[in-house]
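Entry: Amidophosphoribosyltransferase
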Amino acid sequence: MAVLEPFLKQLKQSGSIMFSLLRPAYSNCRLCGRSMKPIVRAETYADASYARYQLPIIPELCESCNRSIAWIKDVRCLICGRAVHCDDCIRRVDAGFIWNRSAVRYDSVMRSWLANYKYQGQEHLEPLLIDMLEPMFKQMTTELISRLNIKVKPRRYKYMPDILTGFDQMKHHAAACWDIVTYVPISEERASERGFNQAQRLAAGLARRYGLPIASLLLRTRHTTRQSFKTRLERLRDTRMLFTAEPAAAALLTSIYTDKYSHASTFFTLEKQPLRVLLVDDIYTTGSTANSCAITLHACSGITLELYVLTWARS
């Protein structure tokens, strides 16, 4: 038996090496850096107004970090996208946008993630925030197509029915739903201080993934202090006349609208619909910023617009 011990030891070491080679390699969590395994989870949304589907999972995050995401599961207010009863929208007057949808609740964890990205120079978190925004964008697109009965053009290659599924199918629907993507601008002082506009980055990342046109349509007229330090009344006052349209905004919107219906022939007429604009921002609090942006765009354009808002967090 003693003679076999070196052989058995060598065999055990060889087996361990082979097992380590065959074992799937797990990457590290993008947020906390810990090694992670594939996540399997079957939690669902309970809101009856939406189809039941699995709670979003960010593959680049570990189980612990995924569970810390405060996803908005139940949309209680169909105007502002809030997960609880909303009194603000009952008092809503002079509305410029149709509705807002947000991906997460702005709790302490989500606040720290966004602060690290915006103020602590952790720009590597940007793809993560876009990943978190994406599930609500897809849900919003599906909801809008269903509610407004938007006609989606037939797919180009009908003889390959299984090719455009999943992500490609959503790109197809997004192109039919959204005419242009834009974002809430920041002041020159804030851009100089931070080095980037987080709303622009989120909008650009989302538009790039789904092949949607994106443009800067708004300018900020003055610098203001952070909205997070203000009361609701102060926010409403502060956002009055806060934005103006880009000089080329009206011409661009008119051009998109004209191109949309330019293929109609004399033999048939397409039923013209408003131009659908998706406005992106990082946080929705009272909706005063989004509403001010929307009213400004309505005023600058000679065509009918429908503005929808997509934000990363709802406070």
